[in-house]
Amino acid sequence: MADHVAKLYRSIYAVVRRIPTGRVATYGQVAELAGLPGGARVAGAALKTSKPTDRLPWQRVIGKAGKNRGRIAIHDPVGAAVQRQLLDREGVLISDAGLIALDRYGWLPGGPTGRTVMKRPRRAARAGARRR
Predict the structure, then answer these.
(1) pLDDT value for 110
(2) DSSP readout, the chain?
(3) What's the pLDDT score for residue 115?
(4) What is the widest separation between alpha-carbon atoms in the chain?
(5) How far is Cα 48 from Cα 13, in angstroms, rounded to an integer?
C-alpha cells in the first residue's frame, strides 16, 4: 500500500476508534472527520481492508439512509448479521429494515462525554425564510 494511502487509512482508523459504545457514525462523517470530505467510499475501503489486529469498532460505522437515518450497509448477509448483533449488544436499536435513528444514536465529537448526537440545521426552515 502506498504511504499516502496508509496515512489516510490510519487517520480514518483514529476517527473510528473514537466512536463511543452505543453510538454510530456514517462513512461520510468518518471520512470528513479524518480530513477527507466526500470520502465515504474511501472510509468504506479502509474498513473493508482493516485487520483484526487494528482493533476497530467497525460495527459503529454505517451507511447514510436519509436526513436522520442510517443503515447497515454491509451487503454480505453474515457480515450484516454480525454488525446488527454487535450494535444490539451496545444498545443501538435497529429496525427490521436495518435502519438506525441518527438523531438518537448518531455521534459527533465535541461534547463533554463525546456522546453528542448528530444535529443538522433544518433546511425547510432556511428554505422557507428565503421564499419570503
Answers:
(1) 76
(2) --HHHHHHHHHHHHHHHHSPTT-BEEHHHHHHHTT-TT-HHHHHHHHHT--GGG---GGGEEEEEETTEEE----SHHHHHHHHHHHHHTT----TTSEEEHHHHB-BTTSTTS-BPP----HHHHHHHHH-
(3) 46
(4) 56
(5) 11
Residue 107 near residue 24 (C-beta atoms within 8 A): yes
Predicted confidence (pLDDT) per residue in 61-98, tens digit: 999 999 999 999 888 999 999 999 999 999 999 998 89
Low-confidence ranges of the chain (pLDDT < 50): 112-132
- Separation of alpha carbons 126 and 70, rounded Å: 23
Contact by Cβ (8 Å): 70, 24: yes
